[in-house]
Structure formats: C-alpha cells, structure tokens
Amino acid sequence: MVSQHGILYAVHLITNQFGNLVAKVCECLLRNGALTLQAIVRRTELSPAKVRNCLLVLIQHNCAQAFILEESVSGEDAGEPGKALTQYIALFVNILHRVRFSKFMDVVSKELGGSCGELFRGLLEHGRLTVKQIVDRAGANAKESTNTVQEDLGKLVMAHYVECCPAPEPLVPPPDADTKKRAKSSKVMVEPLTLEQRVMAVAMPSAMRRFSFVPNADQVADDQQNVNQPPSKDVGEKRKLHDLESDTALEEEVECNWRANFEELLRRLRHKTCVDTIKVRFDDAAATVLSAMLEASRAEEDKVKTANSDFTKITEAAQSEEIESIVLKRFGETAYKIFRLLFRAGCLMETDKIADRIFAEKKETSKTLFKMWQDGYLLMEVLNLPPDKREGPDKQKFDRLRNVRLLIHSSLMKLDDAIMLFHDF
C-alpha cells in the first residue's frame, strides 16, 4: 500500500513531466488501485478520449500496466477477448525511477561507453521503442550506421540493462491458484503477492525472450542510407500487422518493443551502495572483495532470500548512517548522539539515563528531546501510574513505559538516494 506522501511525490513527478491531465489519471489509479476505463472516467470526470490518451502515455513510459483478470473472462466471453474487462494499474516504483534516470545513465555510460549510453538515453526519454525507432533516432542524432546501433543494443541487452517489454494485456489468474501451488511446494509461510506483482509476473516474457536480441545482417545490407531498417523487419512494422506469416522465429520478435530494465539498474545501484558502505566502515580491500563477490553471485541473487543474506545488515547500516546524518544536520551534535544511542540500543531509555550516557546536561537533553519529538523523530510516552503499580515484579515493565521511544517517522527523504535505500533496497 502506497503512503499518502508517496502518492503526492509520484503525482508531483508525473505532473512535472507529463502535465496535469496525465497526473490526474495517475493519481486516480494510485489512490484507488486497479480500475477500468469507465471507472477512471467517472472518478476523474474527464472524457473517455482524454483518459485513454493519458493511459497510453503512462503505459508508453512504463508507469502503468493494462491487464485482464481471468475471473472476468468466463462463460461465453471466454473465447472473445474483445468482451473481456481490461483494467489498468499504476506502477508506483517505476514512477519513482524517473528521478533516477541520471544515475542509470551514469551506470550504463561508465560500463558500456558513451554510444551505448546515448542509445539508452533514448529509451529513458521515450519509454518504449521498436528497433526501427531506436535505429532512426540514433541515425538522426549521431549519423551512426545500423551495424553500430545493433551492436550497442546487443551490448545493452546482454548486460540486462534493456529488456523486451511485457505483454500489453496479460490474462492474470486468480490469487488462489498461485497460493495453492506455493503451499504444496513449500511448508514455509509465504506472503501473498500483491495485484501489481501478480500482473507483472504474468506480463513479463520468459528470461530467454526477455534478453534475446539477434541482429539481422541481411536487412542491414539492403539499406543504403544512414537511417536504416531495424535488425528484424517485423519488429519495426509490428503495428502495421503485415508480413507476420514469415517463419516462427521472427514471430516472437514481432511483438517485442524494448525498454530500460529498472530491476537490473537498481541492482547495480544497490551493489554500489553496499560496496561504498563497506569501504567507509572497513577499507578498500574489503570493498574490492565484496564487489567481486556480488558480481560472481549476480545470477543467483534472486534465488537467495534477502532476509538471510548479508545485504540486509549492510543496508541497515547504510540506513542508520543516512538517518544519523540527517539528524546531525537538522538538530546538531547533541541530537545526533541521542538518536544514535536510542537507535543502537534498540530499547526504551529514561531522559536521565540518556543525559548520563551522552555526557550532556539534563536540561539540554530534555530541550533537544522535545524538539525532536515536535518534528516527529521521537515519540514520547508519559504514563502517570498509580503508586501501587510502581513497585513489585512489574516495576521494570512500567518504568520502561515512561521512557522515550524511538520512532523513525520521516516518510519521505529529500534525496532520492535515501528513498532508494529505504524503499527499494
């Protein structure tokens, strides 16, 4: 469930990049979940044509996904997709990724070079492109040959920075079917998938097709200008719906547009954060070893439970340092010591004990605690207990209830690095 602050931030990003109408439709989806076209029209009070155009913009830029629930296709309608109920859902995480485009560009350019970075920039700017559109754009901007563009695109796909787009309107099975399959295969309690996760799991193509790109040399030879045909003719002409009866191998290419793979890019940023954290806490040698380990175990990372890996400890350490840095800049050194003490102790502490532990005067400590509490960084609970409850075996329990309890209350960080650290990593 997206928080109110998260919705406001996402709507702000969409407004700045696509305007008020698109943002209005996006906000409607974020606040209400999956909706049909008619439901969006009712809630936004926009015309169906305007809503449809806004949805196309969101889908083109990977901020929304259309899908059909299997339970809505039943009886006589089962064999007639035209009568199925298409719904739309906003992809909150992908909206946040739009702030990180410069970081993604930096990752790609440093690893694969400037020409790959420029080609990747086109995918970030336009959301989804056919191979023909990628070639046309590269030829218009840099007068590059089709051979060079194909090679660069192949490098991006091989590195998993670019992927084949998900299916436009996947048929999503009911959640009960997935739950039963997982229950039979494992006795471990598995948290049910959200609707967004279920939709994207069905929509994404297989790994082989998702990262499969084979240049077509014959078509390159047919082109005599800088603006050439795409590696596969069918890819560039998929919307014209002709020449699709060629051979089976080309049929799969017909349906494939290309887009940036945020999942892999975020993985690289997560690895960089972990390596930088280890470098600061230990030394360059330890960071080099961790970097090599992460690169070697990249293929197996998804199969390992994050909760049982070292990623959690490293990320928690980075989170702690990020919060402490914010507290230090906002409230000063005394507040920093208080926050660090409470965060690391992981338990409730009385004001007097806090003052003693940080070697500060009680008056200054109380003043700082009150200021942090006012700004939402601490939650203060004061209980006036009857005298008979203050003695006996429950004394320690009631004493703890009088203490100041630490609460990480800030729901939105100004820096996107902090958002990634707490939301995505």
TrEMBL record:
Pfam families: HTH_9, RNA_pol_Rpc82, WHD_POLR3C. It is found in: Nucleus. Residues 154-307 form the RNA polymerase III Rpc82 C -terminal domain. One of its GO terms (cellular component) is RNA polymerase III complex. The keyword Membrane does not apply. Residues 10-67 form the RNA polymerase III subunit RPC82-related helix-turn-helix domain. Residues 219-239 are annotated as: Disordered. Gene3D superfamilies: Winged helix-like DNA-binding domain superfamily/Winged helix DNA-binding domain (1.10.10.10). Residues 323-393 form the DNA-directed RNA polymerase III subunit RPC3 winged-helix domain. One of its GO terms (biological process) is DNA-templated transcription. GO terms for molecular function: single-stranded DNA binding. The keyword Endoplasmic reticulum does not apply. Coiled coil: none annotated. Keywords: DNA-directed RNA polymerase, Nucleus, Transcription. Residues 219-230 have a biased composition (Low complexity). Component of the RNA polymerase III (Pol III) complex consisting of 17 subunits. DNA-dependent RNA polymerase catalyzes the transcription of DNA into RNA using the four ribonucleoside triphosphates as substrates. Specific core component of RNA polymerase III which synthesizes small RNAs, such as 5S rRNA and tRNAs. Belongs to the eukaryotic RPC3/POLR3C RNA polymerase subunit family. This is DNA-directed RNA polymerase III subunit RPC3.
